[in-house]
Amino acid sequence: MVEFDNVWKTYAAELGSSRNTALKGVSFYLPQGVTLGLIGANGAGKSTAIRLMMDFIRPDKGIIRIQGRSPSESSLRNAIGYLPEIASFPASLTLMDMLRYVGATHGLSKDALSRQSERWMRSLELWEARKRPLRSYSKGMQQRASFVLALVHDPELLILDEPMSGLDPIGRAHICQLIQALKAQGKTILFCSHILEDVDRLADRLLILHKGEKRFEGTPKELTDQYGTTDITSGFLRSIGMEQV
Amino acid sequence: MKGSLLRIQALARLVIVDGLRRQALLGLVAMALGVEISGLFFFAFVPRDIGLVSSDFVVSIGWCAGMVFLLFHAVGVMSWGEDRRVIHTLLARPVSRTEYVLGVFGGLLALLLLLNLLLGFIGFGVLWLIKGWVGESYFSQLNLGGYLLSWWGVLSIEAMILSVVVLFSGLIRGNFTVLLMALSYYFISNGIPVALETVREGSPVMRKLLLGLTLVFPNMSRFDYKDLIAAYGHWPATSTLALNLIYVLIYCALVLVLAATVYGRRDLK
Question: What is the ipTM score, two decimals?
Answer without folding.
Answer: 0.89
